[in-house]
Write a structure and sequence with these properties.
Radius of gyration: 19 Å
Strand order of the largest sheet: 1-2-3
Structural class: alpha+beta
Order of helices and strands: EEEHH
Shape: elongated
Low-confidence stretches: none
Number of strands: 3
CATH topology: Alpha-Beta Plaits
Length: about 70
Amino acid sequence: MPEIVEKNSKLNFIIQKISTNIWRAEIIVDAQTVNSLYSQTLIVFQKETILPGFKKEQIPLQYLEEHYKE
């Protein structure tokens, strides 16, 4: 049976004992938090990345989203 270690509106931590010496940890992150971190990461990536055909810090965010989404 899962044991909930920590629960709030943005993060849930679940630890489940599988066997004597094996545990499973699960972290569930709120979608709004993920989207916020993703947007912040894109902005940092935009400032730090140099790509052929673009001036530094002028890569369109839409380009980065399309070509670096995975």
